[in-house]
Design goal:
By secondary structure, this protein is of the alpha+beta class. The chain contains 3 helices and 5 strands; from the N terminus they run βαβββαβα. The chain has a 5-stranded mixed beta sheet, with helices on both faces.
Length: about 140
Amino acid sequence: MRIKLINKADLSGAELRKITNRLFAEEHRLDVSPSNIWPLQSFVGYLFVITLIDSNEPIGIVFLGFPDQGVGATWWVDSLYRHQGYGSEAMTLLAELLKADEFNEPLVIATGEEGIASLKLVEKLFKQLSKGENDQ
């Protein structure tokens, strides 16, 4: 595993500025992301930053929230780090978070229209979630 998930509240000031600047960079203007809730303090506990283990470089965001019916999840990976397997690793970590919380609610995924890459990540997440304890 090359990444870890860090709660937004645990970021240093420099890490927070870096991921915020990348999230709102012009090239990400049309991305589907949790950018609309990123600045809201009430969501800090539900926002996790995908961070490279070797450098602590923040490269993406995972939002894990609780809509009226079910568990909501969405993610965003900086365009500089897409198509390198980081999204797949993030799905493994997201599945671990969900399993640790022993959620029993329907899972609602917001992926936007990014195409096949997002669909593959959804498949990866559900595959990880359906693994039994003996499969891991």
